[in-house]
Structure formats: structure tokens, C-alpha cells
Amino acid sequence: MGGGSFVQLLWDYLKSLKLTIALLVLLIASSIVGTLIAQKSQTQIPIAELYSPLTIRIFDFFSLFDLYHSWWFTTLLLMFFFNLFVCTMDRIPRLWVYYKSDLAKVNASHLLLKAQFKASFSFEGKDASLVVHKLQELFPHYKFMGERFFLYCGRLSIFNFVVVHVGLLLIIVGAMVGGLLGFDAEMALQEGETTNTLSVMSDQGEVTSLPLEFAIRCEKFKVEYYDEKGRERPKQYYSHLEVLERGKSVLKQVISVNHPLQYKDINFYQASYAKDQSVEFEVSNKQQTKKVTANLNEITEVPEFKLKLVPVRLMERGDISTNPAVLAHLFYGEEGMAPKAPEWLEQKLQKSIKTSEGSVDVKFMGVKDRYTTVLQVSKNPGVPLIWSGFIFLCVGLFLAAFYAHSRRYLLLDHSARVLHVVFVKEKFPFTLEEDFKTTVSNIQRELALEPGDHHE
Q1: Measured at the alpha carbon of residue 78, what is the angle toward residues 73 and 83, in degrees to the nearest 5?
Q2: Which residue among 3, 394, 399, 439 is least enclosed by CB atoms within 10 Å?
Q3: CATH 3.40.50 is the classification of domain 116-143+407-444
Q4: Which of 16-20, 99-103, 424-428 has the highest mean pLDDT?
Q5: What is the pTM of this model?
């Protein structure tokens, strides 16, 4: 490699096998650390609850909570990429020379020493021209060159390593693209709720928002339970999702565990769910009646009646099945004045609030189960590259194992009246054994030659 001493030194350093081993060890060790230490994109528990403040500062300094997106892990991947690339480019010219060389003219003595499989047959007392003619009939694919027959099988397979290296390079590029341009986040939606905002947890457990170019609406959430008495154990749960672009529906899909929604290269996985209860009220006066849904310990405003509702606690009073009740604050008026204490409202029994504008009646209608679906949201633009690399890698390894190149020689030694059968294979020679035995058997049967020294 030309271009000056510095370039040559850099080239030699990048193609070093020692560098390859060192980088592999570091990448494997880093991956083990990333598995043992909770990554912020893979845990729903705040990091602050898992480690002490000192440990968090140390881990955060080395970016261990987001290891696969850290600058030093990306640097290791880049170095491994260039190491593989340089190793590949350095070997190709030498292999091309080998590919173009005339391997049929290799010295016979050298072949006999190097061969993994070889056998010798004496043709003493036989016409050499008849032996040659018979060999041409038996092995028409072999090239005859005066004193030898030659067959080169799988010549292009010497470049199998290029396919393997291309696969590894694509996987590395895909991993870096995914790490730099992708994200992992979370989205929580109640039934009927719409949002275009994702929640991303920081190393310290702080939640930040990440906006989307479109909105997701949860139309419905459904849970199926195992048929077990006395307990509710979820069997499967589904979210009926709708994708909205500029307020218009563009896609509807029911998702469940392992069956995500994919839109614009973003995946929405069913991660978990939460169940709570909402309280149903009916508020009325002489002019109108309105149904109101309120959440426990949250203020729900009903501006048409100048009323605010705060359900505090649910309890079943008297008969469990027929007489539930809710403890609630009822705020009335512009100033939001409230009674001195919350009041119990029994189901479908009316509570009247006397005001200067007339009576406002509040009726507790019942309790409704409310579900919140929790979605794991991820984007990884490097996935197509990783899959492509995986395919290249599998194909390359398969070709290397089963289509490694081999050379087959039938050498005629006219002075010693001996025919040498020589099979040479640099990799996985055991896969050549069956062909060798078949060739030897055919020669013995068809030419009726006496075996000499025979070695496998």
C-alpha cells in the first residue's frame, strides 16, 4: 500500500489481527456491561431507585446507562468497521493473483506432500495411451495437460470471506445508524385519548417529551382473563389504535403483545396496561342535564353549573351489590367555595345544592373501570441494514462450509508407470473425502489398475 510512511503504518495497524482481537474483546465486554447495568431505554423503573447517587454519577460519567449510544461504544464500532474494511481490501489483490494463477502446473512433488487425500496405481504392462483415453472417458470434466488431468472446483469460493465481511460491515453500519438516529420511548393512552407526544426517561429518572409528526388515538382497550375463580390473571390484552394525520384517520389496527403497529418506520408495541376506576355523575337543574365522568382525587369542572367535583374515595355501603357510594367534595360558585367536609353520595340518590340561582342536583350514577394502555415506541432505521448484513453473513458462512474450493489432479508418471490421484482442499477437507473415494473406486473398477501406496 503506497502513499507515504504514515499511511502505510496506519494501514498496517488497521489490518492487524491483534487489533481485531482487542476490539472484539472490548465489544463483547461492553455488551456484557450493557446487559448487567439497567439501560434507560429498557427499564420502567427510575435509575435513581436502582443505584446510589455516587454510583449514578460514576456510571453517568462513562455513559453506562445509555451504553449503546455512548461516544466510546460508537468509536469501538467505527474502529471495528475500518479494521474489517482494511483487512478485506488488503486480501482481495492477493487472492485475485491466486485466482488468476495457473494452478494446474503446480509441481507434482509439492502436490503429493500437501494433499490431504492421495492414492497411487501402477499401470505397468498397460498401454499409456489407452490409460489416458479411458481416463478422458471417465472424467470428461477434467482438463488434460499431457501428463496430468486437472479439475478446479469452486474457484470463486476463495472470495467467500468477502461475503462474510460485507455482512459484518452492514451489521455494524446498521447498529450505528440505529444508535444515532433511532430512539426508544413510551406512550400511555387512556381509552378515547389522543396524543402525539412520547415520553423519554433520562438517566436520572426525569421524563422528557418527544413530539411525533402524527397522532395516536386509543379507541378501545380490552383484556382477556384466564378462567380462574377468586383472581384476575390477564391472558391477553389488546389496544385498538388509530393513526391520525392532520386530524384525519389514516390507519386503524388492533395490537397485542408481539403484534405491533408500524407506521413511518416507528413501531408501537403493546407493553403493559394500568387499570383504575372513574366515577360517573349526573348533574342537572331546571334547564339541563349532563353526564360527567370524574377521576378519583382529581378536580373535574362542570362550568355550565358553576360546579367542581372531586371524588375522594369509593366504598360499598350496606348491600355490596346494590348500594355503592362515593365520598366527594362538591365545589360550587365562581370562588369555588366547598362544604366543610366531603359528603357521601349513594348510587342514584340525589344530592341537591341550594343556590341563589336555583337548585343544582348531583347524582352518583356508578363506577366504571378505566384502562390505560402503555405502549413501547421505538424507531431503528438501521434494522434493514442489519437484516441485510445477517443474510450476507449466513450466505457467506454457508458457502465457506460447503463450497470451499478444491483442486483435483490425476498425475501420470510415465517413467515409474504410476498414476497418482491427488485431492487438495485448504478448508474443511473432510467434505472432499466421499468424492475422493468415488474417484479411486471408479479408477480401480474401470481401468483394472493395481493399487500402489494408498493414503487418505
Answers
A1: 125
A2: 3
A3: no
A4: 16-20
A5: 0.65
